[in-house]
Please model this.
Amino acid sequence: MTVVTLGAHILDVLARPVEGIPEGQGTVVVDEIRVTAAGAAAGTAVALARLGNDVISVGAIGDDDLGDLLVKIMERNGVDVRGLVRRTADQTSASILPIRPDGGRPSFHVPGANLTLTAGAVGPGLLAAADFVHLGGPDVTFGLNDPAFFDMLAHARATGTVVTMDLLSAMPDLLTGAASFLPHIDHFLPNEEQAAEITGHDDPEKAARALLARGPRTVVVTLGGAGSLVATAEGVRRLPALPVEVVDTTGCGDAYCAGFITGLARGLDVFEAARWGTATAATVAQGLGSDACLTDLETALALLD
Model:
């Protein structure tokens, strides 16, 4: 199956464990520092490739050293990066994440070239030729909020392409814009905070039902340590999180999306696909960064045994 991931591409630099930022010129010795491909498109692309899918990633990055490194990481993981456009006036989006001992992840972030992505970066016929299209972070790639892009999605869906969507931020103004994509997708996978912000419902089940009414046929709300819930026209089902030792939650949502899409691509229903998403997210949570511990599909699914 071919999956096109389209949207936010970020280079993450992570360190753990970090209990605080030292004053002045102080130094803290940490156990581990990593650099990873991240963001709701790039992070999901790497996870999808490791799960055995053919992946093409589309986005905007800077014509800089950060962009070179991001491309190298994605290529090394088997992602086709010919859909990435390079910007000379904007740097590659990047984050520095000092990971707390409990797995929490504050961040220092530069939006960079992600803000410049438009429908013009999407090759003619690319979406319609894919089995799946994953919109990763249209809240921060708001240049895609364009009738021309919605027409591309409509054409792709008419030819059988399945469209999924995840978000990157929790900022109210950005999420309001991202809600415009809901009539144009099949499966929406927000986290609990994002679902509440879009709908005004703190109860995730009520939020999921409200989101369903806006167009998707499935809404999956991820709930962190409480698991996730899957809402369809037939009802709502909750899935528990898997009992693993959490090192870092960075990229768990992207991994969940990758597992979910992989399950759908192999003919599973949305509930069983969500279990694959749960297992993939739990795998990533056990290490540092958005690709941690994820080697292949078999290893991830072993957590379900």
